[in-house]
Amino acid sequence: MLIHSASQLLTLTPGPQRGRDLGMLNIIEDGALLLEGETIAAVGPTPDLLAAHPSEPRLDASGCAVLPGFVDPHTHLVWAGDRAAEFERKMAGAKYLDILAAGGGIISTVRKTRAASLEQLLDETRPRLKHMFTHGTTTAEAKTGYGLDTQTEIKLLQALLALDAEGPLELAPTFLGAHAVAPEYRDDPQGYTDLVCSEMLPAVRDWWDERHGQSSTGHRPFVDVFCENKAFDLAQSRQILSRAKELGFPLKIHADEFDNLGGASLAVDLGAVSADHLVKTSEADIAALGKSDTVAVSLPCTPFGLAESEYTPAQKILDAGGILALATDCNPGTAWCESMQFVIALACRALKLTPAQAIAAATINSAHAIRRADRVGSLHPGKQADLLILSVPDYRMLGYRFGANLVRQVVKRGRVYEIA
Amino acid sequence: MLIHSASQLLTLTPGPQRGRDLGMLNIIEDGALLLEGETIAAVGPTPDLLAAHPSEPRLDASGCAVLPGFVDPHTHLVWAGDRAAEFERKMAGAKYLDILAAGGGIISTVRKTRAASLEQLLDETRPRLKHMFTHGTTTAEAKTGYGLDTQTEIKLLQALLALDAEGPLELAPTFLGAHAVAPEYRDDPQGYTDLVCSEMLPAVRDWWDERHGQSSTGHRPFVDVFCENKAFDLAQSRQILSRAKELGFPLKIHADEFDNLGGASLAVDLGAVSADHLVKTSEADIAALGKSDTVAVSLPCTPFGLAESEYTPAQKILDAGGILALATDCNPGTAWCESMQFVIALACRALKLTPAQAIAAATINSAHAIRRADRVGSLHPGKQADLLILSVPDYRMLGYRFGANLVRQVVKRGRVYEIA
User: Fold this and answer.
1) Which of A304, A397, A403 lies at the smallest CB-CB distance from B337?
2) Smallest CA–CA separation between A57 and chain B, in Å?
3) Cα–Cα distance, A116 to A284 (Å, whole number)
4) CATH architecture for residues B70-368
5) CB-based contact B404 A339, cutoff 8 Å
6) Pick from A65, A96, A71: which is nearest to A83 by CA?
């Protein structure tokens, strides 16, 4: 199939787009793409590709900007229930402790998720995947972390593999047994840390390796930890991630969402693939990220969701030479948002990115943040045919406009899905 | 038709919901609505209505919250072109004067709008109306104001009447010839003010009265003025609105968006239907609003769109007894947003409203802000059958969630439109 006459074809660079190089869209005006099955075979000006492939079936993208499908590199995705009542109480002025006393907080989601069957989890998650896909996300990372016991955490991995297999959206799974201290270990966080290291991580490795090949890639899942006050301190985070590394897992970290514990530097030290959140990140941590290959993943929906005013110091990260990516953080507690289009609009304002920078951070750099940049995140021959045909001619409408879906068609592995 | 089994049927009160009474949703659990043609004939518990009307055709709303269609009481809606390039320059750090020098700002939209044919304006506006409608807006106010000469301003009114006649979304038109000082009068704002009073307003009245009955209601349009530094000062605003009142127009005002000039108190003084923006509103102005029937319309997308941190002091307005409503302000300069769902999510966070308060402000109170509460904004027998069937069972998902469209079906004048 030949997609032709795109007003702007954003091919991007293979990246990662580091520091002030962020935002290289490599635009072909009146651009065209030749697809062969699931793969991009050629990219170029429309007249050239039409002349070279005159009898190819055509898809007219006149008046449309075309860009890579969004890669969302940080979502929590699989949970049961919701916390709408808790949100209402928060907006009415309730404090954190009142909410816990009323049965709210992450542990309420853990309770519901443990009680849910695999089928129920799949049923509750599919509408979220549909929102993500219709808003242009073609690949997403997705974490466990509402089980907090070995059995439920593996049930969540099962759910992620099943949803990945259903498609069309591809999922890159992450094991986040260290999302919070399990309620059974409320007074013994070190005991829970030891459990993660001695029981959960080996169990996940064994379970995964038995099924190797059932995921779309066969890669081991990422292992992530929530390095934060009231979750896991720096030593516990190091203990968990070091053990995961020993066992052969690639690493991620939740760092500096509410307090600076040094998680970003720990990520760099251990060679983690990404460090995520990065709100209270220190100058030293920023400098460390800037010299590393660890991708700095900003989640602006989280401060927005919590009505906070402080966001990732993105400009400092760019000045330091860091690799900046964007994600939704889709989760039931702080940011139930499936749309990378909204993330882009918010990042322009809260992180002071240009639309071009935000788009690069949401495609090629976020593909690097989940080690899938060999297949997705830019539009080049040999890469997977994952792309968006917008209903508007100018990429800058992403960012400038907000609240509506600007995707007309999603192309995933060469197949066209009509959106609006 | 009988819409039945709604998990929550939000009927609201006829309003206006004043001060701390905001948020009365009057929910019927397992609720049903009987529609007769374009009108609501009955509202009540599902078992009662099913028993009373056993052979009526049915629409099953199980698992869905049902509420009045949103009324968006402040949009600019009809313009030509876009300012995406200007947005990009702003995010890259350009100052206001640089943008003007590069041909940006409101006057660039005026130039394009003057040059556009009526057909072109309709073509450019229809996609915005579609986004509004699919996101649940069933009635919207819409302003002229990108003409700034008599002929173009009347062309914009023509466009609004034509789009209202096309439907399904109903439009309440507003004449905003005093949106900015026309470029021809750049150095003579008083001269332009005099032109609005002596030429434009009488011309609009004559033109409108000739066509009386072509709009969906036959009401005269509102007359609005942008009372702000670099637009119209308080005396000029009073001159324009007083003249409009003499000529029999109902009044609105843009007040306190960037500076406090006393516009809100002027609105109260003249008996305006609404005062809109209200960011820099003083305690005295808030007190005046609180004692009046002038609806306080907050436009949180505008500070959001401009990446500013100050919003309408909504809690103070509620404490003072004011009637608070919400709108998008959809426009190409500061807030290209069509979605009242996003306005609700933003208002919860930036104005500290509960979802219930935000919904009441976006339905019944916003209907009062355009004098249509006799027909829309709540679900009661005799009112127009304008309502939303959500894809979720709990109204609090509005506000809590953001970025995705939660409307499953829009019912407009009794006709069902499938959305997702």
Assistant:
1) A403
2) 28
3) 43
4) Alpha-Beta Barrel (3.20)
5) yes
6) A96
